[in-house]
Prior knowledge:
By secondary structure, the protein is an alpha/beta fold. Helices cover about 40% and strands about 20% of the residues.
Amino acid sequence: xxxxxxxxxxxxxxxxxxxxxxxxxxxxxxxxxxxxxxxxxxxxxxxxxxxxxxxxxxxxxxxxxxxxxxxxxxxxxxxxxxxxxxxxxxxxxxxxxxxxxxxxxxxxxxxxxxxxxxxxxxxxxxxxxxxxxxxxxxxxxxxxxxxxxxxxxxxxxxxxxxxxxxxxxxxxxxxxxxxxxxxxxxxxxxxxxxxxxxxxxxxxxxxxxxxxxxxxxxxxxxxxxxxxxxxxxxxxxxxxxxxxxxxxxxxxxxxxxxxxxxxxxxxxxxxxxxxxxxxxxxxxxxxxxxxxxxxxxxxxxxxxxxxxxxxxxxxxxxxxxxxxx
Length: 325
């Protein structure tokens, strides 16, 4: 199977590639602008060859990296040649950046996915897996499920909803087998560049810096370990009869940020480290209060379920960060 992974040098991409290269007859091409994930991040999980645009018409072989931007429409048409499946991970991520610059969030997340869906159509790529989020649904009484009417709160949620809409359109009009995966809050080894709460807090603890929680810490999220998420991506890329579907990929478990910091504290203490002071600051614009997912659809149609508990995953994540320091 020939894979094209956008944003493949990032946290999710490198963890996905680490698993894929263990499979026989697997070839991977990566497109990444290297604004977050770097070549060294990819090098930490596999050997790869850098290629140029002119080499895109050659067969995908081994692991190939092309440094480029998903906003480049002509590049999308070239780099996707020969791919059996596109996994679209590259995006402007997170609520905060989308609130600061809604236009850039829209351009990256909407035009970016449109470029690669159109490339999939033109190059007859069979399967397209889109990394979405629970953000399109907005402020609702959880658990979130796929049949809820979306009402995004943040520009980030709006741009991810647009991506889901384009996936539906390309599945129904052009026959591209699209699958949108609404990821929970992903954490785990390799998240040293990630700006979401687990990675950010661990980095601050290791530097001895004060932790900041927006609001009173009662807001909830659904934290999913990276290895479980990667398994869901692979199943979405290969399962039959799921074109045009959306899946919640999370743990069906609601965790407050206060509970998260207590789990993190115990994990650090077990490893001989003390937590710094925790301050509560004003709530952040665009954040939803409660968020966790009903994952029964993914259980039933993908045959997938998460297997890592939050304490287990937290310990493994902290150990990875400590090994890098």
